[in-house]
Design goal:
This protein has about 325 residues and is α/β, with parallel strands linked by helices. It contains 13 helices and ten strands. Strand 7, helix 10 and strand 8 form a beta-alpha-beta unit. The structure holds (3S,4R)-3-hydroxy-2-oxopiperidin-4-yl beta-D-xylopyranoside (XIL).
């Protein structure tokens, strides 16, 4: 039997993957790998609002329930993703409603979802992608209707619904020393000063094979220095197709560097990939010309990146 990431991971740092709901219910080989390689799982889509509440007040819990049950059977932690996001808002939530109504449905949503999985989800992405590249708050229906206070409110609602869950703010494009990363440092510092229950920062880490983020380690540290946990929440390393042996080696080096950085920072509590097999990755559908972003190929057989992570452990 091959060594697994899960067996080699040091205690105190979780190794996770996003889970594709269809494969979870239909593909035994997928389930086997998911159970043996990872000790944490994130729903790739099943816990997003549009999936959970397609019709107002009518919840579709099945996919999310199945994921949580799978995790419990396999001794895995569940990382909840994601409560407040500008994308994946159900169509019935209207930007034309008065602010009070928008606020009420948002609060109801956060409360319903967190309460349902109270004690069974170890961490939640409470807000996702709230910043723009220039560091300002992203122009979303939440900001427009509710003002910047919606972020603090979301954390307070989530905390009230499950005081034991660790609450994260999740973002992309903050792996290196970017303007967005600088702005996020400021934002979380302010939130913490105001007593908002923010426990950690999630670094999505959708990276490319030919670019290492600038000073990832130093960047993780400055968030850790604020007293926060940090987590790699959605790592994948996309390759401009076709994938050649050389590109796969460079990809492996990027995966390795991210793990190294996480392991070097005691505040880094988990390392999660956004899907583990190239057969089920979101990349080809969203980044034209790119693919082969995961640790396993379409067989699924482990790629050089998988070996690099094992080697680092
Ligand atoms: C993506 C999923 O992987 C896709 O299947 C879905 O169609 C769109 O969302 N940042 C996030 C994730 O926080 O929720 C996104 O997931 C990828 C980018």
């Amino acid at each position: 039997k091959r060594q697994s990431l899960r067996d080699q991971m040091p205690p105190g740092v979780r190794i996770g993957s996003a889970v594709d709901g269809r494969s979870l219910s239909l593909d035994p080989a997928y389930r086997d790998l998911l159970g043996s390689e990872f000790n944490a799982i994130t729903a790739e889509n099943a816990m997003k609002w549009r999936s959970l509440e397609p019709v107002p007040g009518v919840y579709a819990w099945t996919g999310a329930d199945q994921l949580v049950e799978f995790a419990e059977r396999h001794g895995q932690a569940v990382y909840g993703h994601t409560l407040v996001w500008h994308s994946d808002v159900p169509k019935w939530v209207s930007p034309d409603w008065p602010a009070e109504r928008v606020r009420a449905v948002l609060q109801e949503h956060v409360t319903a979802v967190v309460s349902r999985y109270r004690g069974r989800v170890w961490a939640w992405d409470v807000v996702n992608e709230v910043l723009d590249e220039d560091g300002s708050l992203r122009d979303t229906v939440w900001l427009r209707k509710l003002g910047p206070g919606y972020i603090a409110d979301a954390f307070r609602w989530a905390h009230a619904a499950d005081p034991g869950a660790r609450l994260f703010i999740n973002e992309y494009g903050i792996e290196g020393r970017t303007r967005k990363a600088d702005a996020l440092v400021k934002l979380v510092r302010e939130l913490r000063r105001a007593g908002v229950p923010v426990d950690g920062v999630g670094f999505q880490s959708h990276l490319r094979w030919d670019q290492q983020p600038r000073d990832l380690l130093g960047n993780l540290r400055r968030f850790a220095d604020l007293g926060l946990s940090v987590a790699v929440t959605e790592l994948d390393v996309r390759i401009a197709l076709p994938a050649t042996p050389q590109k796969l080696e460079r990809q492996a080096a990027v995966y390795r560097q991210v793990l190294q950085a996480c392991l070097a920072v005691p505040a880094c509590v988990s390392f999660t990939v956004w899907g583990f097999t190239d057969a089920r990755s979101w990349i080809p559908g969203y980044h034209r010309g790119y693919g082969a972003a995961c640790l396993f190929d379409t067989s699924p057989a482990p790629k050089p990146a998988h070996a690099a992570l094992l080697d680092e452990l």
